[in-house]
Amino acid sequence: MAIVVALAGLKGGIGKSTLALGIAGVLHRAGRKTLIVDADSQGTLRAWAALAAQGNTDGPPVIALDAKALRRDLERVAAGFEVVVIDSPARLGTEARAAMLVADLVLLPVVPGAADVWALRETLAVLEDARGLRPELRAGIVINRTDRTTLAKTAREAIEDMGVPVLGALTSRVAFGEATLAGQTVVDYAPDSPATMETQVLVNAVLRALGNDHGKSKKAKR
User: Fold this and answer.
1) What's the CATH number for 3-210?
2) Is the dihedral angle over the CA atoms 153, 159, 163, 168 positive or is it negative?
3) % of the chain at pLDDT higher than 70
4) pTM of the entire structure?
């Protein structure tokens, strides 16, 4: 069975698609067979895949699945892959809930700011509903586009009090946007950049959070 990592969040503009692409890119470049599932109707990662195809880029493949297909078909379409990274929509609808119910680990991106922290609390409430069906579901927060301001420090303190581990913090880097527009992952576009190093640190934390029991069958749990 593939490891399934889903990115979810109530607000738009928190970097779910960029993080999904960065994580998948690092894993792909490390030799892990990685599949990206674009469950967001906005289709950011499908657009990226089209650019990657035009440039003949060696990146992780991207497919689109809606909520029903996620629950019904993910295990079949992910056969042969080691890791699946799901990008869910910027709302807590059926796709986001379906992503949580098929995931081993849910990543919850948040950017520093009061409205974003409030939205994260709402996302955590949906996560707890999902854990009512799958108590073994793991979760981690990723602080995105952080900096050294007092606001960022205050937001992090509030986030760390929410009872979900913070797995990583990434700063705002031009390389992320440039890589996406070039149809590449950041690890290919700027392999020695701070953006790539921060993403690698996050991937390492994600793998540690998953532990060694991800190979257990999830079919009976869903």
Assistant:
1) 3.40.50.300
2) negative
3) 95
4) 0.90
